[in-house]
Amino acid sequence: MNEPKLISGNANQSLARAVARRMSLHRGMSVSLVDARIERFNDQEIFVEVFENVRGEDMFIIQPTSNPANDNLMELLIIADTLRRSSAGR
Fold first, then answer.
1. pLDDT truncated to tens, each residue of the chain (90 aa)?
2. 8 and which of 16, 22, 70, 87 could share a cystine (Cβ 3.0–4.6 Å)?
3. Closest listed residue to residue 79, CA positions, set 43, 33, 38, 18
4. What angle do CA 23, 40, 44 make, to 5 degrees?
5. What is the pTM of this model?
């Protein structure tokens, strides 16, 4: 079984780090945050770039949809689309 990997949106990166730490402690496996860049351009367009190979990997996205809900939800959807286009497993 592949060890899961996490990717975090900009809404709560400290939560993603805490989840990775907790999963590593309780599951006895190495759960890491994927190296990625998530940027918002001046026109508010969101850009996501993943710097690691995620092909076939089990990915979990940590991205709360709290205020501003629309912005955070769009970021979540674009992260999911980027992972899908990168052939992440599930």
1. 578 899 999 999 999 999 999 988 876 778 889 999 999 999 999 999 999 999 999 999 999 999 999 999 999 999 999 999 999 988
2. 16
3. 38
4. 130
5. 0.89
